[in-house]
Each structure stands twice: as structure tokens, then as C-alpha cells.
Amino acid sequence: MPEYDRPHVLMMSEITVDGKLTLKRGASSKILMKYMAPETELLLHKTRAEYDAIMVGANTIRIDNSFLTVRLVEGKSPLRVIPSSRADIPPDANVLGPDARTVIAVSEAAPAENVARLRDCGVDVVVVGEKDIDLPGLMRVLKRDYGVERMMIEGGPTLNWSMLNHRLVDEIRLIHLPFIVGGADTPSLVGGMHIETEEEMFRLSLKRHYMCGSNLVTEWDVLYHPRE
Q1: Which of 2, 76, 113, 189 has the fewest CB within 10 Å, making it most exposed?
Q2: What is the dihedral of CA 23, 206, 4, 195, to 10 degrees?
Q3: Closest by alpha carbon to 150, among 12, 14, 58, 40?
Q4: Rounded CA gap, 57 and 66, in Å?
Q5: Alpha-carbon distance 96 to 101, whole Å?
Q6: pLDDT-wise least confident of 141-150, 162-171, 189-198, 211-220
Q7: pLDDT in tens, 62-88
Q8: From CA 220, how far away is CA 218, in angstroms rounded?
Q9: Under DSSP, is residue 125 helix (H, G, I), strand (E, B) or coil?
Q10: What is the per-residue pLDDT for 3?
Q11: How far apart are CA 228 and CA 220, in angstroms?
């Protein structure tokens, strides 16, 4: 996909020293996020205020029930974007509230009653993909129909993998938490399929690192090999 057809995308996440996002599978990332330095919390909300849209996966919404709004700094909350192929967002999800505009991306296979319920909540529902979400297609819709030039993702391992696999991530910003939690099945920054060779690795270039309060923050550019 040509660069101009989609938003510029930043992946931002907090991770432990061993690369984990949560204490264990199924646990909310908010448990670890409460250990972020106050300065780093401000950085997160400042970043949200600088971007046109913010995207997380449906499973993150089910576990964390995040608001995805700007609260700690001055600024407008970004457009909230949630890919949910089955349109099965919980009815009490905070992203369905009126405090920011929300787009739910669904597939053609989503049950009609789920789609109707979401629309009744006042959110925008866009259909992209037959059974699964067509992420490149969604990126085009966000830029063309919603004017999204810059989007950040605070995704879980599945969304992070899918966005990288489609070459849709331009930058990564990591907030490093000084903990090791372990666990063979504890969610890490990127999930997805196992790679077979080193040629399949996603290569990064470190462009900046700094302390934000007591947290190390690293910023990376994502380097993609030219397609054959």
C-alpha cells in the first residue's frame, strides 16, 4: 500500500524488561500501567492528544475496558478505532460512550444484531473484510473518510502482529517497566505466527532514548525490506 493511502502509524506500549504486556494471560494491562511514572502517564496522554486516531483490538477492550481518551493534559481525544470482526464489543464498553467519536470496524460475517446494537449506541460501524478485518482497507477508509493522517495503536499482541505483518506500522515507542514477570504464555509485545528464518524478522532502527521520570523510553523506526 502506498504511504499516501494510509495514516502514519505509531505503535506505543508499556513493556516489562522481559517484553511482557501483562502479569499473565487474561490480566489487564492496567495492573502494570499503574507502576508507570507520573511523567510517563503524561507522555501517554500527550501522545494521544497529538494523534488523529487511536486503535486497540477488541480483546483489549474486553479485558481493559479502556476509555482511550485524553484526560491528563489539554487536548482533544482522538477518534477511537476498534477492529472487531464479529462486532461483539461488550455493551458496557467505555468506548461506546459519548466522550469521543468511535469507529468499530466489522467484517461482512458479523451478526446483524451485533451491528445494529453498536449503531444504536451512536458509534460508526464500517464493514471491511469478508470474515476477518481487512486492515489495509481499514487504513484507507480512515484516511479517506475520516481524515486520519496520524494514528497510534495501543494494541495487544494480536493486533500488533497483524499491523506489522501488513507493513502498517512506521514507528514504535516503548515505555520500559523495571520488572520481570515471566510466564511462557504471558502476552508479549507481538504475537502471531512463529517465523521460520531471520529474513522474516522485523528490523528496527533506534532513533531516540531517554528517561521519562523513572521509566526508560525508546523510540524506533520500523524498517521493511522491499517486496520481491
Answers
A1: 2
A2: -60
A3: 12
A4: 11
A5: 9
A6: 189-198
A7: 999 999 999 999 999 999 999 999 999
A8: 7
A9: strand
A10: 57
A11: 24
Residue labelled with grid coordinates 479502556? 66
- Structural Rg of the chain based on CA atoms: 17
For residue 118, name the pLDDT band (cuts at 50, 70, 90). Answer: very high
Is 150 in a helix, a strand, or coil? strand
Report the length, in residues, of the chain. 228
Closest to 132 in 3D by CA, of 164, 159, 168: 159
Q: Give 166-198 pLDDT, tens digit per residue.
A: 999 999 999 999 999 999 999 999 998 788 898
- In sequence order, what are the residues at sequence separation of 6 or more whose Cβ sits closer than 8 angstroms to the Cβ of residue 147? 52
**Element of type H or E holding 80:** strand 79-83
Tell me how far apart the 2 most distant CA atoms of the chain are, in Å: 48
Amino acid at 93: A
CB 160 within 8 Å of CB 172: no
Least confident of 1-15, 129-143, 212-226: 1-15
**Separation of alpha carbons 50 and 30, rounded Å:** 22
For the record, the C-alpha cell of 208 comes out as 531516540
